Amino acid sequence: MQGKLNEIDIRSILQLIELGQRTGELFVEAHGFAQSAHGVHGAHSLGSSSGRESIGHSLHRSPQIAQSWFAFFLNGQIIYAGNSSYAGDSAANLSRLRDYLRRYKIDPVLSSTDSAIASLSAPEYGYLWNLLETHVLTPEQGRTILQSMVQETLFDLLSLHQGSFIFELGSALAPQLVTLEIAPLTAQIVKQVQEWKQFHPHIQSPEQCPAVADAAQLRKSLTEVSFEALDRWADGKTSLRQMARYLNRDVVAVAKTIYPYLRQGSVHLLAPPASEPALRRQSSDTPRVVCIDDGAAVRAAVEQILSQHGYEVTSISNPLKALSLVFQLKPDLILCDITMPELDGYEICAMLRKSTAFRAVPIVMLTGKDGFIDRVKARMVGATDYLTKPFGEGELLMLIEKYIGAGDPDRPKPDQLLADAIEGERDLDLNFAPKPVQP
Q: Does the pLDDT at position 45 exceed 70?
């Protein structure tokens, strides 16, 4: 089952899953524009038929980027749900869980190797199970957290009107800690979505962060205890959604509490602070990227752009050789094309994820223009993110910086011995004209 949300809404999709007592995974994707910090880097499109074509200036907005959500079902009941941030990015997939753990004054040291349960398709779920297995969390606490995660995700999904979806039958996410009936849950959340609309335009997103704008005026409106509580939470860094997680309340209840002071002007809402890039390995100050793509034009362009911006980059055309070479190169991030001969990108990603050395390394899949199904499959084999061809120079740099930070302009020259060692193994198509890159 798949289609567009302008043809069938999320509530109807959930009803069909419940009525059919389906077991599998629902994946939903919606697109929106995002501000680009890299418009000044230029406007080249990589992966188009000519390899590098101008797509016009874009100083303020990047092309459409996708947000995605997923939910797992067992016999028509929902057992877990999240969004793409909690599926791929190792830092992000712990942030939501840490927020929920804060309720119980728990702050464990978690890592991407903590649990093998659902390590590819739902790593956050695996982390939660590890806490249960090690008795850091009680089963009751675990069930409460999972129910909150599901409700939070469904609130976002039931607010959507545009996007694409696919439901794939499959084996159940195991083990299960909780199963939730869809009908009463969606009825409850639909009411929340309707109530949320009443806060517009003062509140537009659960990710906005309250900040005290006029303390004197706010103090006049509240008791001293209430003022101190709100002043503590409204720090301009904690989002409405995070406050709901910490306080074990739904986000609508939190928004309702703050709404009068927004209208009064004593509290303002700020955009969420930019997320910090993932930490790099400590063995080198220069971030290292490997690009696996059988298209010569894409490889050459990626090498040129990333090298200019302080990254150490190696491109590999042969997917079979790539598997052995990445273990030698130990990259901080891997760009991998999906459609390649002999071994496709899904297989490469799945194989790498089986190794503890690459369980937490960001793997970004390069997909075609209409690659919705590609993106679903990529997520299911453990891909961190994706980049749609043709992509611009700014898009590439923004994605790389998101996961491994900015490049090192003063980087030393690559180790010549390593370069010599891999030169004979990688195929750069040096004797042939660049072949057209197919989207």
A: no
Q: pLDDT grade, residue 284 (50/70/90)?
A: low
Q: Report which of 268, 216, 430, 301 is spatially closest to residue 41, judged by C-alpha positions.
A: 301
For residues 395 and 407, give the distance between their C-alpha atoms in angstroms, rounded to a whole number. 15
User: Kind and range of the H or E element at 270?
Assistant: strand 267-270
At residue 283 the predicted structure's pLDDT band, cuts being 50, 70 and 90, is very low
Instruction: Report the amino acid identity of residue 180.
Output: L
280 burial class (0-12, 13-18, 19+ CB within 10 angstroms)? middle
Q: Are 392 and 293 in contact (CB under 8 A)?
A: no
Please check whether residue 367 is in contact with residue 29, taking contact to mean a CB–CB distance below 8 angstroms: no
- Residue 45 structure tokens: 């499109």
For 96, the token pair is 């939501």
Q: For the ranges 92-96, 122-126, 328-332, 345-349, which has the lowest average pLDDT?
A: 92-96
Cβ pair 368, 377 in contact under 8 A? no
Cβ neighbours of residue 427 closer than 8 Å, sequence gap 6 or more: 316, 317, 318, 321
Task: Give the least confident one: 129-138, 332-341, 408-417.
Answer: 408-417
Question: Which parts of 134-202 fold into alpha helices (H)?
Answer: 139-157, 182-197
Q: Which long-range contacts (CB under 8 A, 24 or more apart) does 141-146 make?
A: 141/104, 142/177, 142/178, 143/177, 143/178, 144/248, 145/97, 145/100, 145/101, 146/79, 146/80, 146/177, 146/178
Query: Which is higher by pLDDT, 294 or 37?
Result: 294
Backbone angles phi, psi at 387, to 5 degrees: -135, 125
